[in-house]
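Anyone up for a design puzzle?
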């Protein structure tokens, strides 16, 4: 049997377990952000993590991520934030990490029940296994916008 075929069969057998593990990671992680539990959310990332928006900005390290969350989430006020990760594709990497790419929508429901959506985006995570379970070593978000920098500048002007 060829190496490629053996790898494909092994990958197919492991895929359901990996898909479940990844789904469980996001089912744990994203409600922490939505509940504004910033410290617990930051703990789902490695200490040396990278978090950023392609074409706009990037944070390095868990401490910077924590401060970034504390600084940006309050702009939503008392609105409820929900993150919808769909079409996840997991790609195990040679170093043991897992590249997960997903499309994402963020809904914001204000106190009157009015729902608004953030620009759709693609989230690319690099997940690694640690003693505590899966952790995100990297998260890069690419908004479906021609100029994400302009979008973030407008947000800063509105909420700065």
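Challenge accepted. My sequence:
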């Amino acid at each position: 049997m060829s190496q490629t075929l053996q790898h494909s069969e092994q990958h197919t057998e492991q895929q359901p377990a990996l898909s479940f593990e990844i789904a469980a990671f996001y089912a744990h992680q994203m409600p922490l952000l939505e509940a504004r539990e910033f410290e617990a959310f930051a703990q789902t990332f490695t200490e040396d993590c990278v978090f950023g928006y392609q074409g706009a900005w990037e944070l390095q390290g868990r401490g910077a991520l924590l401060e970034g969350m504390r600084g940006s989430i309050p702009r939503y006020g008392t609105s409820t934030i929900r993150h919808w990760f769909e079409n996840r594709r997991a790609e195990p990497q040679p170093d043991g990490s897992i590249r997960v790419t997903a499309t994402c929508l963020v809904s914001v429901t204000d106190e009157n029940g009015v729902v608004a959506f953030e620009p759709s985006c693609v989230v690319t995570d690099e997940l690694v296994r640690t003693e505590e379970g899966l952790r995100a070593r990297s998260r890069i978000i690419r908004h479906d916008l021609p100029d994400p920098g302009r979008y973030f500048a407008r947000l800063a002007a509105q909420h700065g």
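A detail worth pointing out: The chain has one domain: 3-159.
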